[in-house]
Structures are given as structure tokens and as C-alpha cells.
Amino acid sequence: METITCAKPTFLKLEQLTESQFNKLSKYIFENYGIKMPEEKKIILQCRLQKRLRELQIDSFKDYIDYVFSSDGQSKEVSHMIDVVSTNKTDFYREADHFKLLADNVLYELSSCPEFHEPMKIWSAGCSSGEEAYTIAFTIEEFHAKNHYFDYTIYGSDISFRIIKQAIEAIYREDKTTAIPMEIKRKYLLRSKDRNNPTVRVKPNIRNKIIFSRQNLMEEKYSIPDYLDIIFCRNVLIYFNRQTQEKVLNKLINKLKEGGYLFLGHSESITSMDLPLSRIKTTVFKKI
Ligand SMILES: C[S@@+](CC[C@H](N)C(=O)[O-])C[C@H]1O[C@@H](n2cnc3c(N)ncnc32)[C@H](O)[C@@H]1O
After folding, report:
1. Distance 204 CA to ligand 1 centre (A)
2. Based on C-alpha coordinates, what's the Rg of the chain?
3. Nearest ligand 1 atom to alpha carbon 89
4. What residue ranges define each of the domains in the chain, with the CATH number in brackets?
5. Which one of 39, 72, 86, 267 is at 20 to 30 Å from 110 when CA atoms are compared?
6. What is the pLDDT of residues 184-215, one digit of tens each?
7. What is the pTM assigned to this prediction?
8. Which residue's CA lies nearest to atom 17 of ligand 1?
9. What residues are paired with 199 via a beta bridge?
């Protein structure tokens, strides 16, 4: 459950988002970014945009909406508005059984296949601030140490510029790293010297394995290479309706090579969708 704190602005009277203004914005966000904006989200959107109005020194939602739909606003403001509505919750080793399956089965199977071509290509689609992509990299590095080496590239993408910037920086508060085993921390993370603000940073050799970019999964074409070995698209589809989920899944599957793996979030389901996938585990699929 999201807590809504709506601080009262100092110089602005509390602007209310009218029903028709909310409908206009929610329709635009849904049609272009797939994110469902039901009526219950009105207050959240209103609160978050009030903050944005203050930053821009715009004092009515009418003026803000005119700006968003102007050509200037389309290039400059829409991405900020999407930052406001997207939910970026993530963690290192989130849904940890996926990384165990990757380490114990998937990496070996794919890299030992006679048709395997290096580099192995993995996409973390909807990667948020990068924890998922870095966890994949740690898992591959550990696999190399115990099994055999292969080159790899990870693509991390998200709709939010703000969050992609954080992913590229790869700096995390130390209390956000509790799920990372100590020996992995020692090998792949650097600790800040500032004990008042303890942070860690992913080491450059790992950062260099990941290419982050902004990518809207609603777009017709994705600027990610074809014939991917593995796609992680976890806890992203839940924000879309069924029809959009199926459309996006078809496009993701087109990017996968035959025999490639797709990992979805634990609360996401493809039941009753007609997709060229065979189920390996509840939320893990293989392209057929
Ligand atoms: C809850 S996070 C999941 C992060 C990570 N995959 C995980 O499971 O921990 C969902 C991410 O999907 C992104 N997202 C939402 N709609 C998107 C879209 N249309 N295209 C690309 N990314 C999107 C959000 O910005 C957010 O960072």
C-alpha cells in the first residue's frame, strides 16, 4: 500500500486536479506508456504533480497541462511526468530463486549449447535503478569462477530517465544492500569512506558489462539487439492491462532467440495468452 503524503505548498494554493484534467492525463499516460491510471490514482497524481508545479513555478493544472501537450512540453516535460507516475521499487536479489535457477541451470545450458555465440546477451527490461541488472552480472561472474568463461553483455532499460541515471551511477545506500551475500559485496562493490552517509558503488569491471538506455516498452520497435539469450521483465507488466501485457510480451519474445529464457515477476501470469513459450517454472519460460 502506497503512503500518500501531500505537503502543502508555501506560495501556491492547493490546486485540485479536476475530473476532466485527470482523465486527459491518465488517458495520455495509458495510451503512450501502458501505465494504468484508475480513478484511485487521482490523489496520488495530484499530490505528486503539485510538487512538480511548484518546481516549475506554474500555478494551475490548466497551465501545466497546456505545457505538457505543447511541443516544448512534449520534449521537455513528459519524461518528468512519467517519473512521477512510475513505481520503481526494486532490490538486489529480488525474487532470489530466479538467480539460483540462472546459476544452477540456465547459464550452463545456454553457454554449452553448440549453437551458442558469444557474447551472451541479456536484457533487464524495466530495470529501475539497476539492482536487477547488477544482480544478473554478479551471478554470471560467480558462474565463471566455478564453471567456464564466456563473454556477456547486459542491456538495462527503463522508461524513466531519472532512474536510468541512478542505474548508470550504480551508487546505493548501504542499507539497500543487505540481500547481497558478504563475499559478493567484497568482490564486486566498493564502500564509500563517508561513514555519515554509507554507500557502496558497483566496481567498474561490472558496470562496464551493462549498457543502460531509456526504452518505452509501448514503442513499436526496441533499440535492443535481436537474438537475446535471456530477458528479465519482472514487475513491469503488472502496471499494464491484459491486452497491453500480451502485446508487449509478443514484442519481447520476438527479441528472444529460440530456446532463450524469459523471466517474469512472481505476481505476473501469462495464463490464457497465446504465446510461443513453454513453462519451466511458474514465472520462467523458454521460447519454442
Ligand atoms: C517495480 S519496477 C521493477 C524493477 C525490476 N524489474 C524488479 O523487478 O525489481 C517497474 C519498472 O518498470 C518501469 N516501467 C513502467 N512502464 C514502463 C514502460 N512502458 N516501458 C519501460 N519501463 C516501464 C518503471 O519505470 C519501473 O522502474
Report:
1. 24
2. 21
3. 1
4. 19-85 (1.10.155), 97-287 (3.40.50.150)
5. 267
6. 999 999 999 888 889 999 999 999 999 999 99
7. 0.93
8. 159
9. 173
- Ligand 1 center to 137 CA (angstroms): 19
192 CA distance to ligand 1 middle (Å): 28
**Nearest protein CA to atom 7 of ligand 1, as residue:** 90
At residue 3, does pLDDT exceed 50? no
Amino acid at 133: A
